[in-house]
Fold:
Amino acid sequence: MRVLAVDPGLTRCGVGVVDGVPGRKLSLVEVGVIRTPSTDPTPRRLVVVEDEMRQWFARHRPEAVAIERVFADTNVSTVMGTAQVTGIVMIIAERLGLPVTLHTPTEVKAAVSGSGRADKAQVTTMVTRLLGLDTPPKPADAADALALAICHVWRGGTQSRLEEARLEVLARTGNRGSGIPRRVPPGAAPPVQRLRAASTQPGDAARTTRPLPPHPGAQPR
Structure:
C-alpha cells in the first residue's frame, strides 16, 4: 500500500510518501516540505499549497491519504491555516476517489515509538530506523509526515478493512443506520399485531361462530 501523508501547515506543510504493508519492511518513496511566505496573502499561499500538493498526488499516485488531525490552539491564525490546508488535501483526495484518514499526534507517536508521550527527537529517531535511512529527515515537519505515513500503514489499513467489513454486513442485513441487523422486514406489522394475527386462524374463527347443536330433550323455542 502506498500512503501519502500530510502534516498540514500553511508556512510549512510536511509531505511524505511511504510504501509498505503491516508486518513487512517499509520503504521511503519521497519526503519534502511545501513552504509559503508568511508575508503573502492567505489566498495566494493556499493556491501554492494546492498546486504543489496536486503534483505530489500526480507524481506518486497514492492508494490512501493520511492527515494529522487538527486540534484547537491558542494561536488562532495557525489553527486556521492548518485547517485550510487540511481541507485542500481532502478535496484533492476526494476528487481522486482516495480514502482519507485522520490520525491524532498521540496515535502517531504511539504507533511509531510505542509511547504517546514521545518527543519529536524520539519520533525522528524511530522514523529513521524504521525506514532504514542514513540520516534523519529534516525539518521536523518532514519527519512528522513520515511518522504519520508509517502509522497509517500499520493501523489505517486495519481500520479500513474493519470499516469495509462493517459496511458489507450492514448491506447484507439491509440496515445502514443503527448497525443492528433487522429481524423484521421493512413494512411488516409490529410484533404485537403479528402475534394477534397468528393466534387467530381462519379455521378458529369459523369454529367460534358455528352454532352449538341443541341439547337432547331441549324444547324448541
